[in-house]
Amino acid sequence: MLETKPEINIDFILENATLAEKSNLLAGHDFWHTTPLPNYNVPSIRMSDGPNGIRGTKFFNGVPAACLPCGTGLGATWDTGLIQEAGILIGKEAKAKGAAIWLGPTMNIQRSPLGGRGFESFSEDPHLSGMLAAAIIQGVQSEGVVATPKHFVCNDQEEHRRGLETIVTDRALREIYLKPFQLALAQSNPHAIMTAYNKLNGKLCSQSPELLQRILREEWGFEGATISDWYGTYSTSESVVAGLDIEMPGPPQWRGRLLSAAVSAMALPMRTVDTRVRSVLELVKRASECEVSDEESIRDTPEDRSVLRRLASESIVLLKNDDAMLPWVETESVGVIGVHSKAATYCGGGSAKLSPYYVVTPMEGLQSYVQNIEYCPGAYGHQLQPLLGPYVKTSPGIMVTFYNDPHTSPDRTALEVVNVADSSFQLLDYKPPGANPVFYASMTGYLTPEKTGVWDFGVMCHGTALLYINDKLVIDNCTQQRAGGSFFGSGTVEELGFVELRKGTTYDFRLEWGNGRTSTLQRLGATTLSNGGARLGGCPRIDAKLAIDEAVQMAKSQKHIVIFTGLNQDIESEGYDRQSMDLPGHTNTLIDAVLDANPNAIVVIQSGTPVAMPWASKAKAVIQAWYGGNELGNAIADVIFGKVNPSGKLPMTFPKVVQDNPAFLNFNANDGRVLYGEDIFVGYRFYEKMEKEPQFAFGYGLSYTTFELSDLEVSSSDVHLIVQNTGTRQGAEVVQVYVAPVQSDTCRPVKELKAFSKVDLGPGEATKVRMSLDRNATSYWSETQDAWVSEKGEYDVFVGTSSDQIILTTRFTQEKTAVWHGL
Fold this sequence. Notes:
By secondary structure, the chain is an alpha/beta fold. It is built from 17 helices and 35 strands. Helices cover about 20% and strands about 25% of the residues. Among the domains are: about 10-290, TIM Barrel; about 385-540, Galactose-binding domain-like (Jelly Rolls, Sandwich); about 705-820, Sandwich (Immunoglobulin-like). The protein has a six-stranded mixed beta sheet with strand order 9-24-23-22-10-11.
């Protein structure tokens, strides 16, 4: 028999718990857990990141996990059913990691391609974002795990993120940035919401009564708990009164004893504290009903791998396929160019990063289809020196040894020795046993170069670090430090050094590190990471021109050439924004040269957000593959060789150059604030209003088959039409419905996405597709009426396969004007 859990009697606790006990409940117990009250049968509930999987409780040396495609990759599926399956997988992973609260999904809007965390979110469009978020929340919560959509709201860039003031009109706030949360609440009823770091129109989001009380609870009827982002609580009484239930992480900085003191001084009403406590207890009671593992465990199953492969392959967007270059058939040999082919670019950086069960690289995926593969790295395309893991082949690999004394101390005693997967570590939620407030570490390993030549190394840290190669100091990131965006904004820039290494000789490297308290940097707006971290990278120096010439010669000698390129978690990460849309290093020069040598070469891009493609007009085949999770290599190969017919559609507009995007002049923070000057004209709304042609439009994506849309019928409440696969392959098409008023006295977008449906059909097969329209389809936010207004009049309905490929149009009439609030 299952053991019956003791009942949590909320009313009894509110009547009998002490002020201190109640105050402690309103903050985390530690980095990942709520505060328990054992005397009242209130357990401690575990929370866990992240948007593309469940990390568990450790950033450092964590338990491996399933890694889904990044948020934009999931968004590119446009498939609510598949995304709900992804949510079920996340729910099961959470339970295996002992977590009953999932800190996701990320639902912020990609107003610019440069946002550091843009890859975590689904889309630039609020309707697509909201509907996909609802699907993944439904999946997660069907497993009994609480979902926590984030970050509420307008946390759309990383620069000065912990205090940046976002200035946005009420209309844009409602129609673009709050709308995904509104739709997700209406469709899926999440049981928690995470607040954002930033200010919104002068008020910090985590202590805004307008957001947390008037809109979220009163207007939308939200009955769940509100949780701060980590270190995103900034006050005691003000945040409690505003409606923030839980300060995370613990131990508390603003609550606990401070909150008790505020109540004792009559600066905070007890009834308000009780309201917050009730919300926390209801969350804990709900989460405690979820059966989770006692220990963080692994559940890498064949069924999960199948779902992960489907997610990755259906996220892939075929951007170009001139002359039907793809799929490849009867391919005996392939030339592969680019270091990305051997890199495991499975996720972005920051809190999205986790330790995967496994990763199939693109090269490994190709090898499952064709054995004769010639490889050429081409010119490097990294922004930071690559991690040393792939170069360390001598047992026991890379070791991190912790001490209480610096390396200059004789006979120091090791506290703990840990074998790590690669040459970086972050001690966000970890402290070695017996460590003092200031402690140290040595990261060590061995390199045996395959060629004689110069190696370049790079070190960045939160703390201090010295790199030694064979006991010779190569990099000093200790005595004079420069501030950078690493380690959630608390770290240094990458300091560089070089040394000549000889072929076949084994060299030991040793990074001597002091924890975050040894840092000489004084940083405002950085996330508090008292224990710090370090990152060591390095690789052989190559001559870019010679490397490109080598790639060109291969391209001339091989019929089938594929170029792998893109970004990685060093470029797209929480903590800092991208500085440009360009591919790094000499990548564009490499692609140009290879395409000149072999115009049939395929370009595969892995990135979470758009990159500039100055060579796009000459490329015949281009694939956008995102950060594909565990199965990224198999998914890419499945599409290239035709096992999978690509069906992904862009969830955001790809501009030709960064200057074309609507937030270009208003993205960077100025004097502590950012103005959303593009207003409601985010993404495709801007490009269409300005009649500016993008590189690739919102909703765009090609297939290996063809589809026909016909027999459109529309009313004010639904859309139905016939979709037929007119080609020779099984395939899926995304039917997209856009709506716009024929006439309005209010400035409106040219059209807006209001419904979509993904349809999978065999060759020649046809089906009737039905999609519903509700009052959201005709409404805009009126600032004068402080309400949604659905105007009477005629509305155009545009149905197509992307925002710029409209196939069918018709109209319907709205008979009366309606003014409304709520969901």
